[in-house]
Inverse folding.
């Protein structure tokens, strides 16, 4: 917003963001919309001008504008979204946090124990697919009384992945995995709770059937204590329109 104010609009600019993320969560891509009005007689900015100008004023910040599109007045970055895709990065093979590659610090989660039963986690993820009351899988906040706990999970995949320069340290036996979730919208901390529950299944603390039971309980207090995944491994991957 500060970068946009440097474009000298005659009306203050307000950004409307598609998705909010917790402190410590990352975004590979996000979307926002705003209206910009120039002084009379000045031509409207084109897309390339906006990309260049905004990035010039953002050069000291860990954020970049990738694309700009002119949209209709009816468009809304949050409410027009068809779906949102999140990726959670897990690291297996670490018996101690000091074994996490330094370039992966705060960019993945290495659960205690080092090994996870991925087939069991995949079986458990199938219970999350479809439309359910996800009350057990949301943290409570000020919006809880006003938001329906019913959500539809369109995708819940667990696939092997790669780490930054990991081909140079294959001898260490570390494995990166990605959990991918897609839905039109998610509840507060829902993805981190789903990941934490699936990891508990992978550790043998829960069975796949326990995921179905947690859904049926419909009570956030029933979620296993201290099981929520940390924010560092979570990435907003994309917003689809």
């Amino acid at each position: 917003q500060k970068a946009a104010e440097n474009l000298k609009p005659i009306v203050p600019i307000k950004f409307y963001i598609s998705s909010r993320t917790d402190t410590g969560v990352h975004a590979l891509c996000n979307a926002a919309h705003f209206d910009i009005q120039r002084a009379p007689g000045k031509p409207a900015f084109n897309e390339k001008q906006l990309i260049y100008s905004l990035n010039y004023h953002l050069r000291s910040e860990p954020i970049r504008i990738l694309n700009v599109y002119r949209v209709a007045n009816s468009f809304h970055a949050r409410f027009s979204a068809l779906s949102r895709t999140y990726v959670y990065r897990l690291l297996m093979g670490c018996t101690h946090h000091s074994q996490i590659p330094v370039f992966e610090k705060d960019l993945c989660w290495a659960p205690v124990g080092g090994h996870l039963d991925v087939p069991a986690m995949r079986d458990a993820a199938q219970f999350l697919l479809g439309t359910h009351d996800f009350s057990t899988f949301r943290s409570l906040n000020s919006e809880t009384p006003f938001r329906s706990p019913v959500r539809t999970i369109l995708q819940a995949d667990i696939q092997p992945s790669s780490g930054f320069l990991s081909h140079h340290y294959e001898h260490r036996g570390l494995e990166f995995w990605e959990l991918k979730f897609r839905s039109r919208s998610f509840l507060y901390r829902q993805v981190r709770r789903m990941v934490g529950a699936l990891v508990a299944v992978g550790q043998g603390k829960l069975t796949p059937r326990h995921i179905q039971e947690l859904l049926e309980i419909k009570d956030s207090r029933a979620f296993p204590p201290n099981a929520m995944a940390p924010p560092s491994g979570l990435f907003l991957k994309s917003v689809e329109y």
User: Anything to note?
Assistant: The chain has a mean pLDDT of 94. Residues 83-240 form a domain with the Alpha-Beta Plaits fold (CATH 3.30.70.660). The radius of gyration is 21 Å.
